[in-house]
């Protein structure tokens, strides 16, 4: 054991063994051995004893001393270490005490927080219970309100149906009475002071357009009334009509109507929006015989009926054996179906039950419904689910909309009954055959020999535009729209604006979105657009494009008579028409053409774009940057860049989230590597890739592996085709898909489903529906005008590359289509599809002999001509080597041969129509000498086969007179026009539209002969006739009258300053106000005011009228402060110039009160309404209906001020006045009862409200029994009735 010196070296530091953080290092002292050395030296000095062992004694002492020293040192070390340990423990104890204090403080804080959270939890629970109580109370109140208004809802539904039936009955009776020459009495409205002026003598209502009514304030007032009665939610409406062509049209409705008319002309029937009549058939095992007989025997007849009206017909039926395999397809077809037929038997399958519940129970008002029942004794009675379904249908059919067909005979008899019902539904409810016939007649009357319109071409453009507008913009187009607005707003002269980009970059989408915004924010801007489809399709034909744009442009100015139908002249005259009409238009004109580079010979036909455009005309064209001509690249250009990677990721992520697909990080990295080029960052490429990821049956890794190899959109579409093929079950379905796509690619404008079923005999409808649904989801196909077409041009290219690499397959598929349409031609089924497809297919096959044989089929040529396809018809004849003269000879000889086989009245009538069509065609081509012979022959046949006084004879006379007018043989033309006028008056009566047509033709003829007085007399009579027929014609014809009247007044307004000229200017301002051209209206109204102030003086009542109209104009523009100032000036003039009880003074008071009310100044409006009421009482007496109307207005205002107690006596007094003066069954009484019902409801008296409303409905039902009564109108003649259901409309609320 060593000493302490062996443990620690001198100066070495020993650390605390406890490892405490606060420990200190200790230094242990170490000594040497001096004492031992001193002992030795002392022993040496002393004497040495003899005989003793000095060494052993000293050795022992030394050993003890060493042992002592060692123990002492160890003790010292132990003591020091223990002292150090004690000090370290004390410091650690102090530190632990501090930590303990800190933890105690934290614990106290946590305890306080816990108590606070506990209190908050208790408060939240209490609030939750209170919210549940409030919700329960709300549910109870809501159920109570539902119960109280159940009678209102049911009565209103019944009322609508009754009104529709009564309207049809009244119209038919009115027509019968008018045909018999009986004049139906039309009583004047009670509030006549709001529709007439006392300053200028006014004639009857029928002189509205030609007399002096428009110059008076009621002209503007009528518009304001229409505006004001529409604003805000209304409860009760007046049942008194407004005279003129704008009856039953509110100002806001008129705004939308004018905006649509400015963009779309002519008016397209709503039935054309659904170009395919889809009949959904559901059957049971017992009714399979009726189904087979219906589809095999009667469906072809329905198909021919629809084809004759320009529509398709398709039977939609899922057999019981396969229906369960197509649930999504059945739901889709139910949504698209036009009519539904349920052939009910004793046993109903689950699929039939589901479909019947969806159609008959959930959505019974979406389409016409037919229910077929077997009632024969030998048939099994309905039991179980069938009877239960029938009971539920009967219970749900409260309005009797389901048409029940009962049959006790054979299945063939039942199919015949179903066919009769379907034929009636298709004619009356779906296609409106009677209305269509009438419209066709009117269209023929209006467009006689001048302009022929193809509704299918127009519908194709409308659908293309609406499809783009309704598409969800996954790309950010706002920045491009802002830049496009800046380019359009550049000062003139401005060259055409070019929108360029790569294929699929979103040019069409941007153009459509911008057009939509222009139409919404600038209704005075005239926007004409055209979207070009596939190359070689009808939409890419330049002559048809510019004929359509020219006709639409001219129809806004109503000067169609001078438009040439020669294809060459159409291309030449379009820029001239654009320049002439732009000078007459008070707004801007925008022409937008999408994919202009797809037009045939676009650079040659678009030379007019290089010339300077008029100042108010802008032309926008979109073009593929790869095929853009070099001369166009100098135009101002907006280039669409590839999508940034963030937008691409967002688009892909959105589609994946919708499909509940989550990409891994590795897959996202693959996608990022893919989107590195401009072609892969296009909007179409990204959209298609997203669909592939979500719709493909392949795994995501496999899809991404193949997509990496597709560096453009066409190759990606080819991959989509492969994916679609592999998703099919067997080779037969793959062959069907390949044939379907190749047929669409080989056709001219697409192919319909019924045509596909006719070409492919083995194709069943469920398989076709499933296949089409899959191809639509992959963005390959789409529906347009009832035809299947490629959604994008790249999809067509992909099909051509994938399935038809050379011309052999293309010719084979075209041959199939030729065989199908030739079969229809041989069966005398010449539809617009046969005329469109067959000649084009024969031309593509270079078969001139068959093409000429097809063209000599008179019905094919007639179809092309009547739809305005002049250029195509001439191009076909030029292709076979015939000029115009030889073509006319061929047609005339063919008609002679056809005439030899005609027997009977129907065939001769058809022959006369063919002769007339040929004559019109030759007249339009300028071959007047050749046109006379067929027109004269048509006249002879109709006079012989029909009757000399038949209306068709008048039509032939009209056409022949048109030729003589072009020949300038005015005497012959006048005689023929007069004969046609006499026949039309005898056939239709003196107020038919055909009579107006002849009057217009005679007036134009007299005008050319400078017989202006006779022309004006005939034109006035024509205007009166058209005014009375304007309600049936709708907004379109009212717009015509506005335009004609405005043009006439513009000519009159060029004279010197006079009171009459100022009056004309005022009328012009009113007319342009009606057309929503507010800038032009303001110009004319300001000119009228200034002229009146100069000529008549500033205090003249006519100046008050102009101020009143200007105030109404500024109200329309929402300049309420200016309008208020103008109304106050007008009121001041009329107070000084007119008697205190003058109706015109009350008129201005009323409209100023309306303005106060609109601006929320209800307290200021009350005294004005009170003054207006006093004036009416003094003018008409306290028992006059006009006083009652003023009482109702004041009561409504009190209701809005929540002064129900003051409103109640006013309503009751108004009710008594109406009952005493108009009778207890007058519509005004019903309106007042409705208002009282609302007031009682707001006061909480629900029983009284229900009683009053029931009485009002009884008056409504009694009104329908009047033979000569008017149809209910939602507008008041005075515009005095306001809303009761909601607060006043704020000035800044959108329209």
From TrEMBL:
Cellular component GO terms, alphabetical: ciliary base; ciliary inversin compartment
Subcellular location field: Cell projection, Cilium
Nephrocystin-3 alpha-beta domain span: 272-432
UniProt-listed PROSITE patterns: TPR
Keyword Repeat: yes
GO biological process: convergent extension; determination of left/right symmetry; kidney development; Wnt signaling pathway
Region listing for Disordered, in residue ranges: 1-20, 1270-1295
Stretches forming TPR repeats: 954-987, 1104-1137, 1146-1179, 1188-1221, 1230-1263
Every Nephrocystin-3 TPR-repeats region domain range: 814-1052
Residue stretches making up the Nephrocystin 3 helical domain: 647-803
Annotated Nephrocystin 3-like N-terminal domain residues: 494-621
Keywords: Cell projection, Cilium, Coiled coil, Repeat, TPR repeat, Wnt signaling pathway
Family annotation (SMART domains): TPR
Short name of one Pfam family: TPR_10
Coiled coil: 82-180
Identification of the protein by name: Nephrocystin-3
Source organism phylogeny: Eukaryota, Metazoa, Chordata, Craniata, Vertebrata
């Amino acid at each position: 054991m060593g000493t302490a010196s062996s443990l620690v070296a001198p100066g070495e530091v020993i650390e605390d063994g406890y490892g405490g953080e606060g420990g200190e290092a200790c230094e242990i002292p170490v000594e040497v051995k001096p004492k031992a050395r001193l002992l030795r030296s002392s022993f040496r000095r002393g004497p040495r004893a003899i005989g003793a062992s000095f060494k052993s004694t000293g050795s022992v002492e030394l050993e003890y001393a060493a042992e002592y020293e060692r123990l002492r040192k160890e003790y010292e070390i132990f003591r020091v270490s223990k002292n150090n340990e004690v000090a370290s423990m004390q410091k650690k104890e102090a530190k632990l005490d501090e930590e303990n204090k800190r933890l105690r403080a934290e614990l106290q804080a946590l305890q306080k927080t816990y108590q606070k959270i506990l209190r908050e939890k208790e408060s939240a629970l209490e609030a939750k219970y209170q919210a549940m109580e409030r919700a329960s109370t709300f549910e109870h109140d809501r159920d109570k309100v539902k119960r109280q208004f159940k009678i209102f809802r049911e009565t209103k539904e019944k009322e609508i149906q009754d009104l529709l039936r009564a309207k049809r009955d009244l119209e038919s009776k009115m027509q019968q009475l008018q045909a018999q020459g009986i004049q139906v009495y039309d009583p004047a409205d009670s509030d006549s002071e709001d529709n007439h002026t006392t300053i200028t003598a006014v004639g009857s209502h029928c002189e509205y357009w030609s007399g002096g009514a428009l110059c008076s304030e009621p002209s503007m007032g009528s518009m304001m009334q229409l505006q004001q009665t529409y604003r805000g939610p209304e409860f009760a409406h007046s049942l008194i009509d407004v005279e003129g062509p704008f009856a039953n049209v509110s100002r806001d409705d008129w705004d939308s109507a004018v905006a649509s008319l400015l963009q779309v002309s002519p008016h397209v029937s709503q039935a054309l929006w659904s170009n395919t009549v889809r009949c959904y058939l559901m059957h049971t095992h017992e009714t399979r015989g009726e189904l087979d007989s219906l589809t095999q025997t009667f469906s072809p007849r329905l198909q021919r009926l629809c084809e004759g009206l320009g529509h398709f017909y398709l039977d939609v039926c899922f057999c019981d054996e396969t229906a369960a395999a197509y649930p999504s397809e059945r739901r889709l077809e139910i949504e698209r179906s036009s009519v539904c037929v349920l052939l009910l038997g004793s046993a109903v399958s689950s699929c039939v039950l589901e479909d019947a519940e969806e159609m008959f129970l959930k959505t019974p008002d979406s389409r016409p419904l037919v229910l077929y029942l077997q009632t024969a004794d030998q048939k099994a009675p309905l039991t179980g689910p069938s009877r239960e379904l029938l009971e539920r249908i009967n219970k749900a059919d409260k309005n009797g909309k389901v048409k029940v067909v009962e049959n006790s005979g054979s299945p063939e008899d039942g199919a015949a009954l179903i066919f009769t019902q379907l034929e009636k539904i298709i004619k009356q409810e779906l296609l409106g055959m009677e209305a269509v016939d009438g419209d066709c007649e009117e269209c023929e009357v209006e467009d006689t020999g001048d302009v022929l319109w193809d509704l299918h071409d127009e519908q194709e453009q409308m659908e293309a535009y609406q499809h783009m507008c309704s598409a969800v913009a996954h790309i950010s187009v706002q920045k491009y729209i802002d830049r496009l607005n800046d380019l359009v707003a550049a000062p003139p002269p401005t060259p055409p604006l070019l929108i360029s980009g790569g294929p699929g970059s979103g040019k069409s989408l941007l153009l459509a979105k911008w057009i939509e915004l222009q139409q919404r924010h600038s209704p005075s801007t005239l926007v004409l657009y055209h979207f070009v489809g596939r190359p070689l399709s009808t939409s890419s034909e330049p002559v048809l494009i510019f004929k359509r744009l020219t006709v639409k442009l001219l129809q806004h100015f109503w000067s169609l008579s001078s438009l040439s139908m020669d294809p060459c002249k159409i291309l030449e005259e379009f820029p001239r028409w654009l320049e002439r009409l732009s000078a007459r238009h008070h707004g801007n004109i925008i022409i937008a053409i999408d994919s202009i580079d797809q037009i045939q010979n676009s650079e040659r036909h678009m030379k007019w774009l290089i010339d300077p455009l008029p100042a108010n005309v802008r032309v926008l064209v979109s073009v593929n940057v790869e095929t853009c001509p070099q001369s166009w690249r100098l135009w101002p250009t907006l280039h669409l860049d590839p999508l940034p990677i963030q937008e691409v990721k967002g688009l892909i992520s959105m589609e994946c989230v919708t499909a509940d697909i989550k990409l891994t990080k590795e897959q996202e990295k693959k996608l990022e590597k893919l989107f590195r080029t401009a072609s892969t960052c296009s909007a179409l490429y990204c959209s298609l890739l997203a669909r592939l990821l979500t719709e493909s049956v392949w795994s995501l890794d496999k899809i991404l592996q193949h997509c990496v190899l597709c560096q453009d959109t066409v190759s990606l579409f080819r991959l989509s085709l492969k994916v679609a093929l592999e998703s099919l079950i067997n080779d037969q379905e793959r062959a069907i898909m390949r044939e379907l796509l190749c047929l669409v690619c080989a056709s001219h404008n697409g192919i319909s489903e019924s045509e596909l079923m006719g070409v492919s005999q083995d194709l069943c409808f469920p398989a076709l529906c499933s296949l089409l649904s899959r191809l639509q989801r992959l963005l390959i196909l789409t529906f347009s005008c009832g035809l299947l077409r490629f959604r994008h041009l790249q999809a067509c290219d992909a099909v051509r590359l994938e399935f038809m690499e050379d011309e052999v397959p293309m010719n084979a598929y075209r041959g199939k289509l030729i065989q199908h349409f030739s079969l229809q031609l041989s069966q005398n089924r010449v539809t617009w599809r046969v005329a469109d497809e067959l000649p084009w297919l024969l031309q593509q096959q270079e078969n001139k002999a068959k093409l000429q044989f097809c063209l000599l089929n008179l019905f094919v040529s007639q179809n092309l001509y009547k739809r305005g396809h002049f250029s195509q018809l001439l191009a076909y004849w030029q292709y076979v080597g015939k000029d115009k003269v030889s073509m006319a000879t061929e047609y005339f000889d063919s008609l002679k041969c056809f005439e030899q086989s005609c027997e009977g009245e129907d065939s001769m009538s058809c022959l006369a129509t063919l002769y007339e069509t040929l004559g019109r065609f030759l007249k339009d081509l300028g071959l007047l000498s050749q046109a006379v012979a067929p027109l004269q022959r048509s006249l002879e046949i109709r006079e012989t086969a029909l009757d000399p006084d038949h209306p068709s004879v008048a039509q032939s006379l009209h056409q022949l007179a048109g030729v003589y007018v072009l020949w300038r043989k005015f005497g012959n033309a006048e005689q023929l026009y007069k004969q046609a006028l006499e026949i039309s008056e005898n056939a239709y009566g003196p107020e038919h539209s055909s009579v107006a047509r002849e009057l217009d033709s005679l007036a134009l003829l007299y005008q050319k002969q400078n017989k202006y007085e006779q022309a004006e007399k005939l034109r006035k009579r024509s205007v009166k006739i058209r005014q009375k027929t304007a309600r049936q014609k709708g907004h379109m014809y009212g717009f015509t009258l506005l335009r004609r009247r405005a043009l006439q007044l513009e000519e009159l307004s060029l004279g010197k300053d006079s009171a009459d000229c100022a009056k004309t200017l005022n009328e012009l301002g009113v007319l342009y106000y009606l057309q929503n051209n507010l800038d032009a209206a303001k110009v004319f109204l300001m000119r009228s005011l200034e002229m009146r102030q100069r000529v008549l003086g500033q205090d003249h009542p006519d100046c008050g009228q102009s101020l009143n109209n200007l105030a109404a104009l500024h109200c329309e523009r929402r300049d309420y402060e200016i309008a208020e100032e103008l109304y106050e000036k007008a009121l001041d003039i009329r107070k000084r110039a007119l008697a205190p009880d003058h109706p015109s003074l009350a008129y201005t008071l009323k409209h100023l009160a309306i303005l106060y009310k609109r601006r929320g100044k209800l307290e200021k409006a009350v005294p004005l309404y009170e003054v207006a009421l006093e004036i009416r009482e003094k003018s008409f007496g306290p028992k006059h209906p006009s006083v009652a109307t003023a009482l109702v207005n004041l009561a409504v205002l009190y209701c809005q001020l929540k002064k129900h107690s003051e409103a109640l006596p006013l309503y009751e007094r108004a009710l008594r006045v109406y009952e005493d003066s108009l009778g207890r069954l007058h519509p005004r009484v019903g309106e007042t009862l409705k208002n009282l019902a609302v007031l009682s409801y707001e006061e909480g008296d629900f029983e009284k409200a229900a009683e009053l409303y029931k009485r009002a409905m009884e008056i409504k039902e009694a009104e329908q029994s009047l033979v000569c009564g008017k149809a209910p109108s939602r507008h008041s003649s005075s515009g005095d009735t306001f809303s009761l259901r909601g607060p006043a409309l704020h000035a800044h609320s959108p329209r």
